Amino acid sequence: MATTVDKIKEIESEMARTQKNKATSFHLGQLKAKLAKLKRELLTPSSSGGGGGAGFDVARTGVASVGFIGFPSVGKSTLMSRLTGQHSEAAAYEFTTLTTVPGQVVYNGAKIQMLDLPGIIQGAKDGKGRGRQVIAVAKTCHLIFIVLDVNKALTDKRVIETELEGFGIRINKEPPNIKITKKDKGGISITSTANLTHIDHDEIKAVMNEYRIASADIAIRCDATVDDLIDVIEAKNRSYIPVIYALNKIDAISIEELDILYRIPHACPISSEHGWNVDELMEQMWDKLNLRRVYTKPKGKLPDYSEPVVLRATACTVEDFCNAIHKTIVEQFRTAIVYGKSVKHQPQKVGLSHELADEDISESLASFPRIHKLRIYWSILTHEPVTIIKR
Ligand SMILES: Nc1nc2c(ncn2[C@@H]2O[C@H](COP(=O)(O)OP(=O)(O)OP(=O)(O)O)[C@@H](O)[C@H]2O)c(=O)[nH]1
Ligand SMILES: [Mg+2]
Fold first, then answer.
1. DSSP state of 371
2. What is the number of the ligand closest to the CA of 70?
3. 201 contacts 173 by C-beta, under 8 angstroms
4. Residue limits of the OBG-type G domain (predicted)?
5. CA 20 to 30 Å from 19, out of 129, 161, 203, 297?
6. Residues 29/206/41/70 CA torsion (nearest 10 deg)
7. Is 0.90 topped by the overall pTM?
C-alpha cells in the first residue's frame, strides 16, 4: 500500500508535469489542496514520530520563548551559553545536544525563555533524525533564531526554511488577509478588493471542492496565492512566527564577506564564541517579540521603572495587565488610570478592554462595594496586593 510520503511524491511529480494555464488551473488547485491535506496527515502526532516526546517538552516560563533551530555544530549551544549563562554542552562533533535545554534572558525587564534544541538535518519534517520533535517545539515558540554557519549560510538557510514551511510554520509573514465564512447553502461566492494575479476562481473552487466546502463567502483582501488560501483553510495547523537568522562564526570570515551577509533581510551576523554583536541580536529579538512594558505607579508616587509588567502585543489590555499581577485584581477592578502613548489625555481613566502601549504607566484602582472606597497597591515582586489604604 502506498504510504503518505509516496502519495505526496506522486502528487508533487504530477504538479511538476502540469503547466499552469486556464484549462489546468482547476486541476492544479485540486492537487495543491490534496498535497496540503496529505502533509497535515503526515504531521499529526498520531502518525509515527510526531511532536513531543521525552526531553522535548519543557515547562514554559517567562513572557515569551525563543527556539534555536539549525544544522548540527553551527553553534546553537555556544550561543545559548553566551546569552543565558545556562551551560549547554557544546562540542566540535555533531549532535552534541539531544534534548531541549531551557535557559533565560532578562532583557528590558522581560523574562524571555531560550530553548536550545538539537541540530536538525535535511528531511527532518519527514521524520529524519529527531527533526519532527525539534520543529514541533519551535512551532510553539514566539520567535525562532535560525542559527547558520556563515561558511554555508545561504544554502543551509533555504533547506531549513523548507523544513519549517513543510511543518506549517510561516516565517516572518502575517496570516493572509482572506476571510472564509462557511454557509449552509448558496454555493461559493468570491469577492476580492485586490487585483488577483496568482489565482483564478476555478482554482479557488477546486480547493474548496477538495476540502468538501460546498457553500461559503470568500473575501480576499490581498493578491493571494493558492497556498495562501490553503493556509487559511488549514489555519489550525499553521503558525506565523517571526525569525531572525543568526549568522554565526563571523570570526572565521573577512570584512568583505561580512558586508554581503549584512544584506540578508532579518539577519544578524554574530560570533557566539567571542560574543561579537550579540547585543544587536538581542535588540532585534526585542523588536520582533513586540512586547509592551507597563510600569506600575502608586498614587502620589513616582512610577516603578525597575520592574515593568511585560505583556505580549496580542494580549495587552488592562485586563491582561491586571491578570499578570494577580488574578483577583480583575474581580475588584473599577477603573485604571493610565499615562502614556495609549491614551489621549494624560492621565486618562480606562476600562478593562483598553489596550496598553509600550512604556505606559498604569495606576490601578480597585473598589469594594460594601466598604468605603479603598485603593489597592500591589507588589510586583510578590504578585500580591500589599497595602490597602482608605481614601
Ligand atoms: N569559530 C567559531 N566557532 C564556533 C562559534 N560558535 C561555536 N563554535 C564552535 O562550533 C562547534 C559546535 O558548537 P555547538 O555550540 O556545540 O553547536 P550546536 O549547534 O549546538 O551543535 P549540535 O548540538 O550538535 O546541534 C564547537 O566546536 C564550537 O566551539 C563561533 O562563533 N566561531
Ligand atoms: Mg548543541
1. S
2. 1
3. no
4. 64-290
5. 161
6. 30
7. no
Residue 78 alpha carbon, nearest atom of ligand 1: 15
Burial 328-342 (b: 16+ CB within 10 A, else e): ebbebbebbbbbbeb
How far is 56 from 311, CA to CA, in rounded Å? 26
The verdict on the CB of residue 95 being under 6 Å from ligand 1 is yes
Which residue has 498535497 as its cell numbers? 35
93 CA → ligand 1 middle, Å: 9
Kindly give the number of the ligand 1 atom that is closest to the alpha carbon of 70: 19
Could you tell me whether strands 216-220 and 267-269 are parallel, antiparallel, or unpaired per DSSP bridges?
unpaired
Q: Which atom of ligand 1 is nearest to the CA of 92?
A: 27
ipTM: 0.98
Express each pLDDT in 159-204 by its tens digit.
Answer: 999 999 999 999 999 999 999 999 999 999 999 998 999 998 989 9
Q: Which domains does the chain have, with CATH numbers?
A: 4-43+176-237 (no CATH), 64-173+239-289 (3.40.50.300), 291-390 (3.10.20.30)
